[in-house]
Amino acid sequence: MFLGNFNNQLIKKMKLKHMKQLARNSSSILLGLALIGCGSNNTSQTANQNSSSSKTMIQNAGSDTMVNLAQAWAENYAKVNSEVSIEVSGGGSGTGIAALINGTTDIANCSRAMKAAEQQKAKDASGKDPKEYIMGYDALAVYVHKDCPLEELSLEQLAEIYGENGTITKWSELGITIPGCTSDEIIRVSRQSSSGTFAYFREAVLGEERDYKLGSRDMHGSKEVVELVQNTPCAIGYSGMGYATPEVKMLKISKTLGAEAYAPNVENTIAKTYPIARPLFVYSLGEPEGALKNYVDWCLGPEGQRIVNDSGYVSLTN
Amino acid sequence: MQYQRGRWSRVIEFLIEWLIRISGISAILFVFGIFFFVFKEGAGFLVTKWKPIEFFTSVEWYPTSLSNKRYGILAIIAGSASVTLLAMMIAIPFSLGAAVFISEFCAPKLKEVLKVLIEFLAAIPSVVWGFIGLMIMNPLIIKIFNAPIGLNVLNGGIILALMSIPIIVSISEDALKAVPDSYREAAIALGVTKWQMIYRVLIPAAKNGLLAGGLLGVGRSIGETMAVLLATGHAVQIPNGPLDSVRTLTATIAAELGETEQGADHWQVLFIIGIFLFSITFVINLIAYLVVKGIRIQAGDS
Questions:
Q1: Do B148 and A185 touch (CB under 8 A)?
Q2: Could you give the angle at the alpha carbon of A35 between the alpha carbons of A58 and A19, nearest 5°?
Q3: Window 117-146 of B, Cβ < 8 Å to A
Q4: Overall number of domains in chain B
Q5: Do B9 and B112 lie in a common domain?
Q6: Which helix (H) or strand (E) holds A141?
Q7: Torsion angle of alpha carbons B150, B152, B156, B157, nearest 10°?
């Protein structure tokens, strides 16, 4: 008798709770997927001119290396021209290019060049050739913890650390010990695969055909890489030179073992002696017009280029 | 006049009745629609190119390789499993203890406060948990365990445990509360201590509810994305211990879906992972449901 009563009560309660929970658990994954899917299906919108309001909106997405720079441009441009508002988002160069192809952004920031296949896709989708601008240069810096005694690495050593089947896994193999890193293991900090920095580093250091060694910590932003290296004595990571802090050390890089190594700074980037320096791109669909053209011209002008320098990168005028 | 108003209100009632009915049906339609969509996106690859043996047994996850694309998710499954296992090892004892305390020992006033606080734990957005993992737990774990890196199974496990505790506590507490007082009175009448009563009478009586709570906690942990993305280190490898970094199934989808080209192999594989995840949570929820339903059959027998 008691048991029967009790169970009925319990069942009623449990059922209610349970249904809620059931819905929450299983649908959250699905809903997430579905939303993403639907979102990218939607290839409309982001016309430059929003006719209902007087303000012109420019959508700007892409490279995480350039997100601070793009933000600084947008903020300063707002002071010059209050009629235009620029919305900046990151996500990685690949995300920016995907958004350009899907028509959800007006300009894409990229820390790598757009591939021929991507250019073709953008053309197929919009009927316009993507227009490329070089906005400045970045020396892709290799960061270690500030207590790390290492000063320089060669590209081959970097490839052995990061590449698939690479032979260097311990700091002692490079002949050093790091205070605070008892395990001696090299903690590789890398980027997620939508990152232009991820793609550029693979191309420039590992070579087109070689993949990364699995087991690297793949961070979701340039800043996160530097933050993790800063907090982790065993770590090594790569990120834009604009993200340097006093808490981390930037290594000098040489082309081959024994050759002269160069620090990632403005002079070495201009002289092209730093081996892993790259241009920073902005892409638009077709020739930019109207407000978009004014904005890009402003970014390429003296004010925009000063901001490139202030953000820690190398301007074109240098 | 009277009559007319009556008719008017009957029309409104009819409309409202149908509105509610449609709302009810739409929920079911949405679930099926979402399932259909996810399945459709992955189906092309699933039928033509999918190699289930490689998919489930290879640890090589190279979806963006330029020379040789490989889609093996064993290491990622191991990542999800290890984080969930650790989370449950932490969450279940704590939640059970909390549920027993709240339902049996607590003064009514404190009980209300505790329940609100535990519910509050569930209201913290998962990205905030991830941020706590990244900024607070990471240096702490490095310092305490002398680990090379603090973003690992342990970090993700603790965060997920904290996130699933509210669910397990509230369901367990309900299950304990639903045990009739006559059980407690009978036990006390037999002269047992409070601990014996809980251990020998209440927990066995409420065990199906407690089990269901635990299973729903597992479902919550496996499905969680943002917090584990930030806290586990996002590294594709089979962990050798709680101090190794891992990557979970959910985090893989979240990190990679935005960048992939629609309809490409990589895109479809991510949806297959989605189908796989959905199957796992579906089975877990089904078991939890059957566990609860199990008591009903017993009750019917008695």
A1: yes
A2: 145
A3: 134, 138-139, 142, 146
A4: 2
A5: no
A6: strand A130-145
A7: -110
Candidate from B61, B65, B142 with C-beta closest to A232: B142
Encoding tokens for residue A181? 């890193």
For A194-247, what is each residue's pLDDT tens digit? 788 998 999 999 987 899 999 899 888 888 899 889 988 889 999 999 899 999
Sort strands A235-240 and A217-219 into parallel, antiparallel or unpaired: unpaired
Q: Where are the domains of chain A?
A: 59-137+286-310, 138-277
* Superfamily of structural domain A59-137+286-310: Periplasmic binding protein-like II (3.40.190.10)
Owning domain of residue B6: 2-48
Radius of gyration of chain B (CA): 24
Contacts of A230 (CB under 8 A, 6+ apart): A145, A146, A245, A247, A248
Which single residue is written with the structure tokens 């320089």?
Answer: A152
For domain A138-277, the CATH superfamily is Periplasmic binding protein-like II (3.40.190.10)
Q: What is the pLDDT of residues A233-284, one digit of tens each?
A: 889 999 999 899 999 999 999 999 889 999 999 999 988 899 999 999 999 9
- The pTM assigned to this predicted structure is 0.77
Please report how the helices B207-223 and B249-256 are oriented relative to each other, as an axis angle in degrees rounded to 10: 30
